[in-house]
Hints:
InterPro entries: Gln_synt_N, Gln_synt_N_sf, Gln_synth/guanido_kin_cat_dom, Gln_synth_cat_dom, Gln_synth_gly_rich_site, Gln_synth_I, Gln_synth_I_adenylation_site, Gln_synth_N_conserv_site. This protein is α+β, with helices and mostly antiparallel strands and 444 residues long. It has 12 helices and 18 strands. The chain folds into 2 domains: 6-104, Ubiquitin-like (UB roll) (Roll); 114-434, Glutamine synthetase/guanido kinase, catalytic domain (Creatine Kinase, Chain A, domain 2, 2-Layer Sandwich), CATH 3.30.590.10. The longest helix has 28 residues, at 403-430.
Amino acid sequence: MGKYTKEDVFRIVKEENVKYIRLQFTDILGTIKNVEIPVSQLQKALDNKMMFDGSSIEGFVRIEESDMYLYPDLDTFVIFPWTAEKGKVARFICDIYNPDGTPFEGCPRYNLKRVLKEMEDLGFTEFNLGPEPEFFLFKLDEKGEPTLELNDNGGYFDLAPTDLGENCRRDIVLELEEMGFEIEASHHEVAPGQHEIDFKYANAVKACDDIQTFKLVVKTVARKHGLHATFMPKPLFGVNGSGMHCNLSLFKNGENAFFDPNGQLQLSETALQFIAGVLKHAPNFTAVTNPTVNSYKRLVPGYEAPCYVAWSARNRSPLIRIPASRGMSTRIEVRSVDPAANPYLAMAVLLAAGLDGIKNKLTPPAPVDRNIYVMTKEERLEEGIVDLPATLAEALQNLKSDEVIVNALGKHLFEHFVEAKEIEWDMFRTAVHPWEREQYMSLY
Ligand code: GLU
Ligand code: MG
């Protein structure tokens, strides 16, 4: 049973004086798209009859096959807390369907459900995600454009008065709570102007919906405080970038399938195999979890972001860390993912990688409890620790070579993703950057 019936929705819309409905979905690059309809069209929308032109959305379809349908997911019905005097605005998150009533292969949300089905075929009932998105707040100028000026000099867990972003962050948390989020933690991060808000884990589709909503709320509230919130992975050289650590677990009929009180580190065989699968495919799914040119400026030594493929229960530098709690909260924390990732695609490839480990009963390498950053390349190689890709170009090459990851995206998403990202890389590769002029202009 879902959370809401159509009748519930009609009743709430009336009681709360909702006047507009936003139908939201996420495109391949992870951007939220909106179609806003007056409430008079609600019946039509709930009958799955709302059409939009798929060819106008990046990477969706060709002109000749452009009619697509939005199927609202009733459980995602939420009223925005900040909306206008004339009446409120509510939203649904939608799946995209073809005119013949079949799900559209290029819909990232549908694709995640497809991979979840593969998980169910292996006997698991739930894939849970608890995300830890980080972001920066920059001041806006008089024209409302973002500047590079930070609004505080705070550091990790600092409080006001250094942390002037605190009021803004508190407002963000309040709005999120009004929208039904359960916020577990909210704090200043290591870099000046950097923040983190963690919310409660949920099944992967809901958690991805939450991430998308979260970004929208953070940006909207920041603007009201004269600030620009960015989820760009590495906005500033010389300080930490922004990650989005993903806490992952598999459940089987209400039991955490990663927990075994008698296992190594109290982890089950399933957990170890899942870890092995994620490590095996990590260099190849990185193009999806770290999808921008800028993502690779974060994955460098010295800034608490991973750049080597390893796991540990003790230290924080590896790609996978095992947080201390056990029992129902047993989970693995994948630390490479950044908040520029399309969460639906990121979860599809992470799940497929883990399931591949389970299907093939893979054994993970020994956990690395030393600081990997102080090891030499030879020492790393001896322990079987490989590097994550250093550029988007390298990451895309790897992605194309890995059948498991390609299948996790499906043909349509894979082809369109790679095409868009190769163009992005080529634009960066051929642009002349300020750094080059600084280095070479006087020298040559
Ligand atoms: N900002 C760090 C990163 O880029 C993570 C810091 C932390 O929360 O441990 O991943
Ligand atoms: Mg953090």
